[in-house]
Amino acid sequence: MRRRRLILGIALNYLFFSVLLFLPAGTLAWGRAWLFLGLYTTGTFAAMRKLFPSREELLEERFKPLIQKGQPLADKIILPLFVAAYSGSVAFSSFDVFHLRLLGKPGGFVSFCGLALFAAGWRIVFFALWQNAFAASVVRHQVERGHKVVDTGLYGIVRHPMYAGGVLLMLGLPLWLESYAGALSAVLPAGLLVLRIRFEEDFLKRELPGYEAYTRKVRHRLIPRVW
């Protein structure tokens, strides 16, 4: 059952990006979008096959709804806003490429760097999931799963490596699609992630034993030696 849900999740992700890319573009004749979808889906499938045997409970947790019992009110507001803002950024990038062309389009080198940024961000997200069995989609004290602080690997460098990877992939995709304006629009979902960090850390300091000590040990939230 879990394997079927995993395959269904990957298929739904493919459909999600397909709609956001091709519907605003008004065409299916877009090589960059097809290449992105192929690379992203293949990479996700390979990564999930590797992750699945050791992180079944985490993947099950991440399939749960965006609104859950035990989730603080702030996260119930910010998380749906983030999903909407990120979806809007991808759709806007597509619309800009084919219709608006607001800030021109990046050259080949910058566009390729965008794809590299997306790949790097996606890889960071994967390793964050690999290293933290409690990296659920929502902010919640997972008492039933023996929730504890993880302070090794990427989590020994910054406190929110998954968000750091998310920011890279949100900025990288519009550049690969050739939209400077789309990359600029990614500031909104990235800003919501920063806001979420503030509320998430306040919640975890109150609810998760050892988290406040962790914030003193690992000083930076998102960017090493910066913030």
Summarize the structure.
This protein has 227 residues and is mainly α. It is 68% helix and 0% strand.
Question: If you had to describe this structure to a student in words, what would you say it looks like?
Answer:
- The chain is mainly α.
- The protein has a domain at 65-217: Four Helix Bundle (Hemerythrin (Met), subunit A) (Up-down Bundle), CATH 1.20.120.
- The chain is built from nine helices and no strands.
- It has helices at 2-25, 31-51, 56-62, 73-100, 108-131, 161-177, 180-185, 187-207, 211-217.
- Helix 1 crosses helix 4.
- The longest helix is centred in the middle third of the chain and has 28 residues, at 73-100.
- It is globular and about 50 Å long.
- It starts with a helix and ends in a 10-residue tail after the last helix.
- The model has no long low-confidence stretch (mean pLDDT 94).
The end-to-end span amounts to: 41 Å
- The name of the CATH architecture of one domain is Up-down Bundle
Indicate the mean pLDDT: 94
CA-based gyration radius: 18 Å
Counting H and I runs of at least 4 residues, what is the number of helices? 9
Question: Based on the structure, what is the oligomeric state of the protein chains?
Answer: single chain
Q: Which class best fits the helix and strand makeup?
A: mainly alpha
Shape: globular
At CATH level 3, the topology of one domain is Four Helix Bundle (Hemerythrin (Met), subunit A)
Helix content: 55-70%
